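User: My collaborator sent over this chain with a note saying "see what the structure looks like." That's all I know about it. Can you take a look?
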Amino acid sequence: MPGWAGHRSRPTHPCWPARRQLPYLPYPPYPPYLPYLPYRKFMLPLHDVRVVTIALNAPGPVAAARLREAGAAVTKVEPPGGDPLEGYCAGWYRELHDGLTIRRIDLKSAGGQAQIQELLAPADLLLASQRPSALKRLRLDADTVLSSDSRLNHLRCLNIVGELGAPETPGHDLTYLAKAGLLGREIPRSLFADVLAGEHAFATALLLLRQPPGSSAQVGLYDTLAPLVGARTHGLTGPGNMLGGALPAYGVYDTLDGRIAVAALETHFHTRLYEELSLTAGADLTAIFRTRSSSEWERWAATRDLPLTVVVD
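Assistant: Without extra context I'll predict from the sequence alone. Here is the result:
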């Protein structure tokens, strides 16, 4: 920014206290400078945290991206062949790894072991997603790593935490959803278990960074589905339940050219929906929603403050 770099005098701003009340800082700490990323990074909560991740596929990179967004310096170590996610979906891989430092190292070799130890020396957190037996062979399991590094914390993403022997059982997003009873007859449109596990790992990392150095934690990909399973277990969702088709004002309907989603759950929405449609409360809505296009219904709902939107296919 003109007039700032290299000068100890601070520019004036009507929102700032008088100059004599402000200690000199090497970067501008106030809101007018937030859009300038070189300065903004100093204000992010994890700007002084160093993370090394060897976690591959989706959950680990999701967590690493969130840590990087919070200001952490993240170094990703991939095998010589790279992360399989890059081959599956190069665009998403690039999005998740924007701002990360990528190193390709053969951790099975003596030279690779020396390189990873060099990376871990100044690090605050190691994030891993390999099975326990694989981590042990690489000497990157929590017991081995933490016994030789008093500064580091260790976070593992596992398949299942809560069942004996289950962390070694192979699995992916699809099998976790199936086991949890969340899989319908179609392939899911997103990697719900993987992404939720990545967010859970990020939250766990934040908690772990507040623990004494040498602490460890683990996140189970299947276990992170528990909040999603609760609604079904207790009869709120699922076929025939209130939010599983039993309430006409909460559902998906065909229109002249597509589908709409209606969620008139609260009493005031429910009452207004039926009044505006001139129907008896609780009546079936299938026939009336077939009389207009999806966009027409969306505009109709917007003018009446009703929760209705076009289903994007």
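A starting point for your reply to your collaborator: Residues 126 and 154 are 5 Å apart (CA to CA).
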